[in-house]
Write a structure and sequence with these properties.
Length: about 525
């Protein structure tokens, strides 16, 4: 009989090999009665700073007799989950390969599922393969040479390739497990299957992405880089063809639009082609950098440098009821670095990443403020894009018009005066930084909320408002400022066969939820269409 058991504690110095012993003691059974034990979750409980420990949830197998004797006691819950119903392909002939646009998590996972079911997808990616892309991104970070077609937002693996590879999600969907298992099969560390805050790190993620691409190809899919979707043709409410790089036309009956939140030219093309897009709230703000040791001490107290804990993180929210706004920390990267994430010339955009080891010694996080369609100050579906661009261009100017990012000490930001220097050991943004006043490239309501939020967060995390902490602006690409509206069958409203998916479509936020959305859309295609020899 199989059961789940929660809340098993292990000290920071105790090996996980002690788990079976702890379980037997808790259940008052002999070691022989514990037939099997699998860790489902491992979390750090740091609520009491003088007693930080690990908490485990496990699935165990017990002999029938033991199971019956202790079922319902000691917090044991029987495992009753049924296996997922198999996916039954539909009957409508697809005629052509399904086309997947974008190789971020949404596109990759949609393509992989379709490939596994024999649909031999054609994957189009505007940027380069991950190795060439890495060289291009480094060229920007070192030599200020931005390629608008291949950068931190565009290219194989999508926006998360140069990230912390945090795999936390708030969605509760059975497909999440499939995503984790796929990552592990593609080379991610196995611990992501059970850690409560799993992460891969940019170094391992790059290899994982490449392995998923190769698997798609092995299964009969085709992956084309430097292949930008430039048009979609439709007739009588259904897609007929896609255009690549402004010249090649490919017939299509199912097209997954997994374009991410930064494909502004593609958004414009969709509007021109009659797709229904609407404004959507997002968030903007700045990156904040602290010494990692400061965060470790605030979160772990006397255990700050305990080898089994690693670099500490945080997640904070400040709500101002009067202003009806929220500010929150977002995409926190322990032991990471702030990265230049622009995708358009003459703009500055920040984001954060880290390597698997998270050992840079610097903690960074976005501190972002909610931005609502009313703040965009214009009508039309792409008003949010215009709004983002305006502040990104201002940041470029305040930074010195050479891709340096404007930076400011927290103390100066709160005092409303420009910084004339910052702690260079803390400011990790490349290619360079310019001490300045960030108020010059942030909307007033964002600056005001950031000031209040930093003061509030200082009460929640000791020294969060550390005077020499570095703020780098501007962080605008937190999520899409627009939604490509779709119907209950995941088709773009009014245009059958086009399936908007992932973050750019406005239906996901983060690596895991984007991947899950890609799977959802691929399932909808499989359930509707029949694959066939003709899908070439
Ligand atoms: P994307 O990943 O944006 O992929 C879209 C793809 O489509 C891109 O590869 C792009 O080149 C391609 N494309 C766009 N237009 C076209 C076109 N016309 N033709 C062909 N191809 C096109 N999330 C987390 O959960 N954890 C993190 O730690 C994390 N860190 C991040 C760090 C950074 C620096 C960034 C930028 C993002 C981070 N995110 C993180 C967010 C996460 O990356 C996104 O939520 C996720 O990648 C969205 O997936 P997606 O597939 O919807 O879109």
């Amino acid at each position: 009989m199989r059961f789940r058991l929660h809340n098993i504690r292990l000290g920071l110095d105790e090996e996980s090999s002690l788990l079976p012993q702890k379980i037997c003691r808790k259940l008052r059974i002999s070691p022989e009665e514990l037939l099997n034990c699998q860790v489902l979750k491992k979390a750090v409980d740091a609520r009491k700073k003088d007693n930080i420990h690990f908490v485990y949830s496990v699935e165990i197998e017990l002999p029938e007799k033991t199971g019956r004797r202790i079922a319902g006691k000691h917090g044991l819950t029987p495992v009753t989950e049924q296996p997922n119903a198999p996916l039954v392909p539909g009957n409508i002939p697809l005629g052509y390969r399904p086309v997947i646009v974008g190789t971020g998590p949404a596109g990759l996972f949609a393509a992989l599922l379709l490939a596994e079911y024999g649909y031999r997808p054609l994957v189009l990616e505007r940027g380069y393969d991950v190795e060439t892309r890495t060289a291009k991104v480094l060229d920007f970070w070192e030599n200020r040479a931005l390629d608008p077609e291949c950068n931190v937002q565009f290219g194989e693996g999508g926006a998360g390739t140069f990230s912390d590879g945090k795999l936390t999600t708030r969605i509760n969907d059975p497909r999440v497990t499939r995503v984790f298992e796929t990552f592990v099969a593609a080379g991610a560390p196995e611990e992501i299957l059970y850690l409560s805050k799993p992460h891969i790190g940019t170094d391992k993620l790059r290899a994982v992405v490449k392995n998923i691409r190769n698997r798609i190809i092995e299964l009969g899919g085709q992956v084309r880089f430097q292949a930008k979707l430039t048009n979609i043709f439709h007739q009588h409410g259904a897609v007929t063809e896609v255009e690549v790089n402004g010249k090649e036309r490919i017939p299509a009956r199912a097209v997954v639009l997994a374009i991410g939140h930064s494909a502004r030219d593609t958004y414009r093309m969709l509007v021109e082609q009659g797709f229904y897009l609407e404004q959507k709230a997002f968030a903007m703000g700045v990156r904040i950098e602290h010494p990692q040791q400061l965060i470790n001490e605030a979160q772990y107290g006397k255990y700050a440098n305990h080898p089994s804990l690693g670099a500490a993180d945080y997640q904070l929210v400040y709500k101002n009821k009067e202003l009806d706004r929220a500010a929150y920390t977002f995409c926190m990267c322990p032991g990471g670095q702030v990265v230049a994430a622009a995708s358009e010339k003459d703009t500055v955009v920040t984001n954060g990443m880290s390597y698997f080891a998270r050992n840079s010694g610097i903690a960074n996080s976005a501190v972002a403020v909610s931005v609502l369609p009313d703040d965009f100050g214009a009508k039309g579906p792409l008003a949010g894009v215009q709004f983002q661009r305006k502040w990104e261009m201002l940041a470029f100017q305040v930074g010195g018009k050479n891709y340096n990012a404007p930076v400011q000490r927290v103390e100066d930001f709160l005092a409303g005066r420009a910084s004339d220097n910052v702690d260079l050991d803390l400011a990790s943004y490349r290619p360079g930084i310019t001490p300045a006043d960030l108020h010059g490239c942030l909307p007033e309501f964002v600056s005001e909320m950031l000031e209040m939020a930093i003061e509030d967060f200082d009460k929640k995390i000791r020294n969060f408002g550390y005077s020499d902490a570095v703020l780098t602006g501007v962080e605008t690409r937190t999520s899409a400022p627009v939604r490509i509206v779709r119907d209950e069958e995941y088709n773009a409203v009014g245009i059958a066969g086009v399936y908007p998916a992932g973050e750019g479509a406005g239906y996901a936020g983060g690596i895991i939820s984007a991947a899950v959305d890609g799977l959802r859309v691929a399932e909808a295609i499989i359930k509707k269409y029949r694959k066939g020899e003709e899908t070439d």
